[in-house]
Amino acid sequence: MRRLIFSLTGLFFLIQSHAQVNTVIETPENPYLLSFKKAYSIYPSVPKGFLEAIAYTQTRFYHLDGTQNSCVGLPKALTVMGLIEDGKNYFRENLVTVSQLSGFSIEDIKNHPETSILAYASAFQKLQQQKNIFGTDRLERYKDIFIALSELPLSGDIINDFAMQSHLYQIYWFLSKKEFQQAYHFPEYQINLKEIFPENYVVLSAGRVTISEESIYTEDGAMYKY
After folding, report:
1. Which of 1, 18, 98, 162 matches a 20 to 30 Å C-alpha distance to 193?
2. Among 182, 38, 28, residue whose Cα is nearest residue 113
3. From start to end of 37-80, where are the E strands?
């Protein structure tokens, strides 16, 4: 029961953000522009815009220092990259993962916004090397790395799967929009979201969905395939 509560509660807040992403394009100020530039210079294989996509999706470029309240007992996201240290035995502790992959200490990552950006970039590049994924010709290949660095539980049911796919959709949606490309100075990637999410594009791009333990569907009746 506790697992189901976490699933439904966490997904509820993710979907609120997801719905906003699909209806409103906001370009909040990025106060860490120079830190992102530094990260790309040190870890050049990380495609430009990827770090901003995570920061935008997770925190809207706001550094979370642990003093903010989390929703309904959900784990607290930390740093401008929105990393989780205590997953409450349900969410993955990706702050620990980033620390282990990058070599930066957990405390340094938590306490310094720039370090959190550099650590995420380092972890991303390490996974690029492990998985032999480089370049920008087929950005969908990076799904595996985004999944590896996410706090969301790996799929075991339709709810977790939808949460993860929604997270991925938000990232690629961000990367595909000219408004973000111009505001945050990354390349004009030609991204076809229908090709990246062929089975569930209609549901993932919907402004509203209905969720139960067994099914997820849009107002028009399109069902999420799992």
Report:
1. 98
2. 38
3. 77-78
Q: Which CA distances in Å does 167 have to 66, 112, 163, 201, 225?
A: 22, 25, 6, 13, 16
Partners of 216 in beta bridges: 211
Report whether 81 contacts 58 (CB < 8 A): yes
Q: Is the dihedral of CA 170, 90, 105, 76 positive or negative?
A: positive
Terminal alpha carbon distance of the chain: 22
Give the ranges where 105-196 is alpha helix by DSSP (H): 106-111, 113-131, 143-148, 158-176, 178-184, 193-196
Kindly state the tokens that stand for 53.
């996509």
The owner of tokens 């949460």 is 163
Q: Strands 83-84, 77-78: parallel, antiparallel or unpaired by DSSP?
A: antiparallel
Output the six-digit token pair for 157.
């049911």
Tracing tokens 């569930």 back to the chain, one arrives at 200
Using pLDDT thresholds of 50, 70 and 90, give the confidence band for residue 15: low
Distance CA 125, CA 44 (A): 8
| Contact indicator for 94, 167 with CB cutoff of 8 Å | no
| Domain limits, the chain | 2-190
Residue 26 CB-density burial (10 A; 0-12 exposed, 13-18 middle, 19+ buried): exposed
